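Weekly structure sync, notes
Attendees: PL (lead), two postdocs, one rotation student
Agenda item 3: pending single-chain targets
PL asked that the sequence for the first pending target be pasted directly into the notes so everyone works from the same version. It is reproduced below exactly as submitted, 135 residues in total.
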Amino acid sequence: MPQRNDPPRRGRRGRHSGASTGGVLLLVAAWAAALAWGARAGQIPLWVLGAAVSVNVLTVLIYALDKSAAQGGAQRRTPESHLHLLGLAGGWPGAWFAQQLLRHKTAKVPFRRMYWVTVALNCLALLVWAFGGLG
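Predicted structure, written out during the meeting:
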């Protein structure tokens, strides 16, 4: 039986985000727990909880608009630096959700690397604020 030398398929199923869903959901839960603990302990002002929800909703909307612009071939797209700033500002859970839901920005390795840098920086800043007394 002859072997086929078909090139690898690069469809939706072939893309991987580089992190397991369970691991990311655990990280999101830990992030939310640190926010809640920090607010309950008085280290983080309550308005930060509302801001975190708002920035995540905004992040999902911006990703959706950028995906739509990409599919339509629009000249004006959301700069990747803006997407990273939203993640750094606390919108990284919404960014991850949008990436998975929309299949947007999941295959571009430099973007993914910088995304995880913003996640690490945001989580580190939150831990210092919630448990280290920056509030």
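Discussion points:
- DSSP finds four helices and no strands in the chain.
- Residues 30 and 123 are 9 Å apart (CA to CA).
Action: rotation student to compare against the earlier draft before next sync.
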